Amino acid sequence: MKRGHIMRIFHNPRCSKSRQTLQLIMEARQEVEVIEYLENPPTFQELRSVVTALGIAASGLVRTSEAVFRELGVDLATLSDDAVIELIVANPILLQRPIVVDSDKAIIGRPPENVLRLWS
């Protein structure tokens, strides 16, 4: 990791995978900004950057197992990336977690050990 650069984690403290990922970051003595995304939801632009850094379709950011997702009755296959991002902005509980961003790279911490790839 570059000096002076701080990675960010979109974190839910109630999620065991998110807590485990944050613990791995702390054990590696990496500087990290913790963003509790349910309290401070990411913006459209932040999520657009995350999608780019992950190199995935925006639908990969959606927790389809959430009750809110089922209640909305959305078919992700019919939505553009921008529409999916707007869905997450409006319903931050749908954001996959944890997501760790380091400059232009990112990972989803499932499993938590995925975070190790950011600095190996």
Written description of the protein model:
- A four-stranded mixed beta sheet has the order 2-1-3-4.
- The protein is of the alpha+beta class and 120 residues long.
- 32% of the residues lie in helices and 15% in strands.
- The protein has one domain: Glutaredoxin (3-Layer(aba) Sandwich).
- The mean pLDDT is 94.
- It contains four helices and four strands.
List keywords for this structure.
alpha+beta; Glutaredoxin; 4-stranded mixed β-sheet
Describe the protein's topology.
Layout: E1 7-11, H1 16-27, E2 32-36, H2 44-54, H3 67-72, H4 81-90, E3 99-102, E4 105-108
Parallel strand pairs: 1-2
Antiparallel strand pairs: 1-3, 3-4
Unreliable sequence segments: none
What is the straight-line distance between the termini?
9 Å
Q: Supply the CATH class.
A: Alpha Beta
From the 3D coordinates, which CATH architecture would you assign? Answer: 3-Layer(aba) Sandwich
Helix share of residues?
25-40%
What's the gyration radius in Å?
Answer: 14 Å
CATH topology: Glutaredoxin
Which structural class is indicated by helix and strand composition? alpha+beta
Strand order of the biggest β-sheet: 2-1-3-4
What's the name of the CATH homologous superfamily?
Glutaredoxin
